Amino acid sequence: MSDPPVDPRNSERGAPAGRPAADAIRLFVALDLGAAARVALHEQAAPLRAALADSVGWVPAANLHLTLRFVGPRPAAFVPRLADGLATAAEVGPAFAMRLAGVGTFPAGSRPRIVWAGVDPSPALLRLHRAVDEAAARCGIPGEDRPFHPHVTLGRVRSGARLDRRAFAAATPTIDVLADIHTVDLMESTLAPTGARYRPLARLALGAPRPAAHVPAR
Fold first, then answer.
1. CB contact burial 59-91 (16+ within 10 A = b; e otherwise)
2. 139-161: b or e for each residue (b if 16 or more CB lie within 10 Å)?
3. Which is catalytic among the residues 65, 129, 149, 182?
4. What is the 3-state secondary structure (H, E, C) of 30-59?
5. What structural domains and CATH numbers belong to the chain?
6. Which are the contacts of 218, defined by CB distance < 8 A and separation ≥ 6?
7. Residue 42 is among the residues annotated as catalytic for this protein
8. pLDDT of res. 215
9. What is the rounded CA–CA span in Å between residue 58 and residue 157?
10. How confident is the model over 130-141, as a mean pLDDT?
11. Which end of the chain lies in a sparser environment, N or C, as judged by fewer CB atoms within 10 Å?
């Protein structure tokens, strides 16, 4: 597959401007790659981590995921409403296989910020993304102003660092991973000095409508 340019606004990212409520939870909607696919992707990306260790902060294998929709800080009371909307979105199709292939950086030019693995924009994935977007809109979440370019973030260039393009090109690995996607997940992201910590608040099975199982928000 050819890898599209990636918009970092389709990745789990910083909070929008404005002061969130005291009980706000930082939310995003994601696809869980599954343990086997996460490990395979992490192992295949090892040459990049070795070559760019000084300039890139790498995402741990356990945190690798595909972000379908960034939501941002919302009150805890908003979680059940969005989870119910995602339960409807999950009904659009059954579980499917998602292929990861290729690596790249964004933005183009001399100062990229993100290193990513490409994802095949299959009809099943695009259909699910549209359903999630529609569910988000019904919950009052503003739409994205950029096209959806599916990818998995592998790492972020450290503040003040510059990615060595020659080292990147020399170490570019062959990425070819198949992930079985069974759920769409509403995730909480907690920022910490050691990196983001993720926690599922609801996991909705694809193609099998069922009540959302909510984890109490902390």
1. beeebbbbbbbbbbbbeeebbeebbbbbbebbe
2. bebeeeeeebbbbbbbbbbeeee
3. 65
4. EEECCHHHHHHHHHHCHHHHHHCCCCEEEC
5. 8-12+24-205 (3.90.1140.10)
6. none
7. no
8. 53
9. 9
10. 95
11. C
Average pLDDT of 105-111? 80
- The residue written with tokens 């928000």 in the block is 217
Residue 187 phi/psi, 5-degree rounding, is -115, 145
**149 an active-site residue?**
no
d(CA 39, CA 64): 9
Catalytic pick among 42, 129, 149, 151: 151
pLDDT tens by residue, 158-191: 999 999 999 999 999 999 999 999 999 999 999 8
* pLDDT tens digit sequence for 29-54: 999 999 999 999 999 999 999 999 99
